[in-house]
Amino acid sequence: MNLITRTILGLGLLAAAGCTRPMEDLLHDPEAVTTATSGSFLNTAVLNGVNIGLSRSHRLNNELMQTTVSLTDGQFHRYVLIPSESDYLWNNYYLTLTNVQDMYNRAREASNSNHMAAALTLRAWLYQNLTDTYGDIPYSQALKGYPEYIISPRFDTQEQIYTDLVSQLDSANALYEVSKSMAPGTDVLYGAEQSAAGTLKWKRFTNSLRLRLLMRGEAKSPAFRQQIRNMLANPAQYPLMSTVDESATLKFTGTNPLLNPFADDRDYDFNGSNAYAEFFIGLLNSWQDPRLDVWATKVSGRFVGVPSGYSLGDAPKIAAIASSRINKTLKTSPLLGTIMQYAETEFLLAEAALKGYSADSPKDHYEKGIRASMGYWGAVMPANYLTRPGVAYTGSFEQIMNQKYVSLFFTEMQQWAEYRRTGFPVLPKGPGVENNGQMPARLAYPLSVQSLNRANYDEAAARIGGDNINAKVWWAN
Q1: Distance CA 13, CA 460 (A)
Q2: For the residues of 158-225, what is the DSSP string, one character each?
Q3: Predicted model pTM
Q4: Which terminus of the chain has fewer Cβ atoms in its 10 Å neighbourhood, N or C?
Q5: Max intra-chain CA distance, the chain
Q6: What is the mean pLDDT of the chain?
Q7: 425 preceded by cis ω (within 30°)?
Q8: Rounded to an integer, what distance in angstroms lies between the CA atom of residue 423 and that of residue 271?
């Protein structure tokens, strides 16, 4: 990441005023961008992106999606999102994207096709998270502070962004040379610098991510529907994740910098100020699900949740309930750094088969998704689990999505995204829920963007029907 880009981002996403040639001379460090190799950017981008997603999963997604409930009158489970919540994801994802852009540029200059493909994949992952959170965002003109000096980028529509990301991932798939390792540098995801087998895993991740984007937009785009058919009809051209160890997961080692970001948190901050929600615990209890033993603490030998959306001021009563908390072992777990698990790929394939995009068995993919999630977390699946009431496959889309919801535990903001797309799982609404009982559809744009990129902000806000949390994103149900 070059220094001028970092400086401009600090002033509000490429919206700083007054950049001049003398300022370039002061802030642009030619040594930094001529000596770094493409591989030197990869691990930093992955680590930063994973940590950003984990932070918001714990803080926002889990509360909105009734995985956990604040015990201190926190507002998110009541659908209250204050404007300052918008800053963190926006600023940090765009900042991380500058590293990814530098990685791609260095790889292209060196004709390193594997690193180019990996950079395009990371770019799509981060941009999807951004646009899924806010809707229309700066994309085609973003990250152009140097040398183009575009400091007031226009906002592209989410449909345009998705269409281009799908195309970029198709290009990445074609770029991989799976007979070669990914050097120079190191690869914290798949160790691809050591073996060409890791490069193939990267290719499978790229295509699984592409399937996620296509399925998220399929209800809105005939072109996406056709691309899904084409993709699934050509598994040799578009290989997908097929085993748990192909999951795109940053394995935390317990040593800096690959340290679980919650490891140094006070226990109270991690699992003392919130408890598991009645809905989440109730769903898993109804299945007698072994993943609870990995994720949650017991109360007198049972797993107990608390109601979400309770009335303001009732925190003391809710906190007095003896309830299950997030297992403290997850603070140091090497498994929490999820970008995309193999289980998600199988649930995408189950949905695609159910909707007729392939001739595969939805039941087969549904059951593979469950096994993959269990295997990922090291939970021992009982022999009769797949035949239990509520689990045994009945051909229900809701059933697929309920299992997918559970499998997306601590996976960025993906539970929230899938709820907005499908309406599943069906979440109860407590008496204290605000926003007219509506699940927030997006985050509002950061205040810094409103002030520093006003004209483009106004145009985007008008296009989406107003910059508010109820303006639906393009793919939303």
Answers
A1: 15
A2: HHHHHHHHHHHHHHHHHH--TTS---SS--TTT-TTT-HHHHHHHHHHHHHHHHHHHHHHGGG-HHHH
A3: 0.93
A4: C
A5: 71
A6: 93
A7: yes
A8: 28
Is a pLDDT exceeding 50 seen at residue 474?
yes
Nearest-angstrom CA–CA distance, 464 and 452: 19
Predicted confidence band of residue 149 (pLDDT cuts 50, 70, 90) = confident
pLDDT tens per residue across span 431-447: 999 999 999 999 999 99
Exposure string for 61-100, b = 16+ CB within 10 A, e = fewer: bbbbbbbbbbbebbebbbbbbeeebbbbbbbbbbbbbbbb
Query: Which positions ≥6 away from 328 have C-beta within 8 Å?
Result: 267, 270, 271, 297
Whole-angstrom distance, CA of residue 211 vs CA of residue 225: 11
Cα separation of 270 and 250, whole Å?
20
CA–CA dist 154, 177 (Å, integer):
35
Cβ pair 67, 280 in contact under 8 A: yes
What digits encode the pLDDT tens for the residues 331-371?
999 999 999 999 999 999 999 999 999 999 999 999 999 99
**Distance of alpha carbon 349 from alpha carbon 421, whole angstroms:** 16
Q: Which pair of tokens denotes residue 477?
A: 């149900």
For residues 403 and 400, what is the distance between their CA atoms, to the nearest angstrom? 5
List Cβ<8 Å contacts ≥24 apart for 62-67: 62/274, 62/410, 63/274, 63/308, 64/416, 64/439, 64/440, 65/405, 65/415, 65/416, 65/419, 65/427, 66/277, 66/278, 66/279, 66/280, 66/308, 66/427, 66/428, 67/276, 67/277, 67/280, 67/409, 67/415
pLDDT in tens, 152-170: 999 999 999 999 999 999 9
Report the alpha-carbon distance of residue 169 to residue 402 in Å, rounded. Answer: 28
Q: Identify the pLDDT of residue 8.
A: 38
Strand-pair partners of 156: 137
Residue type, position 402, single letter: N
Q: Interhelix angle for 196-217 vs 113-134, to 10°?
A: 30
Per the DSSP assignment, residues forming a β-bridge with 10 are none
Percent of the chain with pLDDT strictly greater than 90: 90
Place of tokens 């770029």: 175
Report whether pLDDT(15) > 80: no
Task: Give the DSSP H/E element, type plus range, for residue 274.
Answer: strand 274-276
Helix H or strand E segment including 467: none
